[in-house]
Protein: Heme ABC exporter ATP-binding protein CcmA
Amino acid sequence: MILTVQDLSIARGGVRVLEGVSFSIAAGQALVLRGPNGIGKTTLLRTVAGLQPALDGRIEAAPDALAYVGHSDGIKSTLSVTENLNFWAQVFGKSDISLALTAFELEPLADRPAGLLSAGQKRRLGLARLLVTGRKLWLLDEPTVSLDATAVAMFAAAIRSHLAGGGAALMATHIDLGLDEAEVLDLGPMRAKTPVSDAFDEDFL
Ligand SMILES: Nc1ncnc2c1ncn2[C@@H]1O[C@H](COP(=O)(O)OP(=O)(O)OP(=O)(O)O)[C@@H](O)[C@H]1O
Structure:
């Protein structure tokens, strides 16, 4: 298994949102988190990514297996598209960004400062970053926000080839990516019944 989550309880803003969350993801597998707004999908992804502690339960993953793409793009606006990708490649000890440029059709934008990209183009750059991490498990929070139909298809193709190469993905998305191989985890039954109050993650704003 690339990721195993067992009996996890998580909170946001001191309020328990989900409890008893258990699932595992193997190589080649994609799992889509489903549930209404506010149920705790972002909180779950952040917890699995190690950005906040769990209240209870276990998360098992190889320490260098994860790459997280959340709501904020983490793109450096004064650097060009190529420079951004090179920067991330360096961080992850990789050198080749050509696949990332091609997969998200960023070649025509390669020299443009990222700050001048449109919202959808920025998103494509944010997702292209995944391809230079070399990480096995992609954690994706609403990855298709701002993407048009063509870019959604690019993203779906990137996921497919990642899975085919032995990678895996855990994602929150409201749209159907047309990934037949993806499994769905409905978080509805895991909604917390016993809210607790503490303030350990008040920096989560
Ligand atoms: N600082 C905070 N203090 C208290 N509650 C918060 C705080 N931030 C978020 N919440 C609540 O925590 C719950 C979980 O939020 P989360 O973003 O994980 O949900 P989500 O399933 O990702 O939602 P969406 O589909 O809208 O993105 C929500 O009900 C939200 O209102």
Observations:
- The mean pLDDT is 92.
- The helical segments are 41-48, 81-91, 98-103, 119-131, 149-164.
- Residues 12-13, 15, 17, 35, 37-43, 172, 204-205 surround adenosine-5'-triphosphate (CB under 6 Å).
- The chain has one domain: 3-190.
